[in-house]
DNA sequence: CTGTTAGCGCATTCAA
DNA sequence: TTGAATGCGCTAACAG
């Protein structure tokens, strides 16, 4: 008779299954292992039956302690709103679950938060950390999760960690070329947080494209990616001379600009300037915000990330970030 | 000389700290414990210094194995898009992290997925599971995570698990009363998935409110909460007699209805019918979708959930779900 | 193929 | 206050 069950917590352990099936713990471990391991057919059968009878559920934590694999993948963001791209995130979550791992979602909206995590040491070990937050560099994240595998999507990578970033220059060139072809000679740029590495490169790409197409950069307005900041920025167009085109580094800001201008110039049917956004949010497919935008293939993006998680060995230290090409998506405002 | 470091993995363990500080492992454990425990000042000092020198980070998994607390909280959703309410989710994530726990995000878009989790037994032990997905009942979730504490937000609760649900009837009555006060006599209802428990109650609330206000229910159209399904549903209004008002059980569907009607009746300035949404999404504060809606206090909602996580003992088995009152948010379309 | 043994990293008895 | 010993639940290494 097994008397190990209920010794502490009510939940049956592997030892209980072994006792009931009258085999050793090792056999139970092997029979229940996801990977095929040598167990005779009849013992396997007895084990499965016993596990079923007891309602046994393995404890992944205990397993991790010996295997050194937690099947946990951290996703680190500034705020949930970084995932404005819910489509991308939904797909990512699905793929991670499909490879038998689970997502630990962390938001670290400031450098303070990162340091707090480090100090308190509460962050779980994970098999991999996927970083969108730009408040954390690769080295810090490696310490934070004691994981050697961190994939950086925030534009800050180092030699030891792979990175996947949209190659934004391509799409930006296409968008600016589109504007030029339509007779645009002057443009304003509405930007996000200047401190972010990605944003710096993005702005540089716009400047280069304007230069190449002979478009004058009439103004640079500072926003924070949000709808509200887009609206605020658009106030500049109400009184001053409006440029031929306005480029925003996020669709949300472009939506704000669009709404502000609809209010300023209610009867201005053919819009007073061409408007270009960034992100290719799904809402730009709604009638109310038909904003020409720049986006990338989400499936491809996720595929690269997951590949690093599944085959970390394919990463050669020091290699450059994997670029996912962006492209221009023309819509009514462009 | 300590030779325990680097024996397997390079990461220092508690034993390494003990060796360097020249104290026992127990002392290190106590000195580094979050809760105050008896350690002499000088030893504590030596331990902290040694831990710092080694870059020691405790392993939460190993700790969990003995404490039976993982500091993990599962959030279970159908799809990420359930979190249309990103504001709510962002706040929830913040609060959970504030109490020293971390969020494990699971999507189980179908009953199959739930069963797969159960079968594969890969779900981590968690301190609590917060369930939005309506593909999982409380008992199943308890088995899934071997956790006694699951909080149901999907409308399916049982005697053993607490539940927090918006009290939708209040807001619905207010919205319908608003319509009645404005002379609405007939209404159409655009609904989501009929199978969901929440949706069933919601529809019943609308029916009751219509009845109470003497509004005739002209049509019930089936959607799936999405923008696209709202657009499709609106086709019915193009040819048939339009009702005085259209009530949608999600803002996304209301947005679809609005855009479809703008297209059908482009010059119909004073809209042909009043439109009411549900969820009070932040986008309804944008100019383009000024949809009167029904929402609830997100801070209060999250507060209730977190309270159950922190003080599970406050839940009395068998008690009814905690209701968070909703209210009507009038906007231009109402 | 099987069972025994020895840890994984930590918290917690219990004596001292 | 301290340290030695024990065990959490499981897998891996080894010998049969």
Q: Reading side by side through the largest sheet of chain A, how are the strands ordered?
A: 2-1-3-4
H/E order of the elements of chain A?
Answer: HHHHEHEHEHEEHEHEHEHEEHE
Specify the helix fraction band of chain A. Answer: 40-55%
Q: What's the overall average pLDDT of chain A, rounded?
A: 90
- Characterize the main sheet of chain A: 4 strands, parallel
Largest interface: A-B, 53 and 53 residues
Count structural domains of chain A: 3
Q: List unreliable stretches of 5+ residues of chain A.
A: 1-8
Annotation, overall tally of beta strands of chain A: 11
The name of the CATH superfamily of the largest domain in chain A reads Response regulator
Summarize the structure.
Two copies of one chain form a homodimer. Chain A is an alpha/beta fold and 334 residues long. The first copy, chain A, is 42% helix and 16% strand.
Question: What are the SSEs and their pairings?
Answer:
Two copies of one chain form a homodimer.
Chain A: H1 14-21, H2 25-32, H3 41-54, H4 60-67, E1 72-77, H5 86-98, E2 102-107, H6 111-120, E3 128-131, H7 138-145, E4 150-152, E5 164-167, H8 168-181, E6 186-191, H9 197-213, E7 216-222, H10 227-239, E8 245-248, H11 251-264, E9 274-276, E10 293-296, H12 298-310, E11 322-329
Parallel strand pairs in A: 1-2, 1-3, 3-4, 5-11, 6-7, 6-8, 8-9
Antiparallel strand pairs in A: 10-11
Helix pairs in contact in A: 1-2, 1-3, 2-3, 5-12, 8-9, 10-11
Chain B binds a DNA duplex (16 and 16 nucleotides) through helix 2 and helix 4.
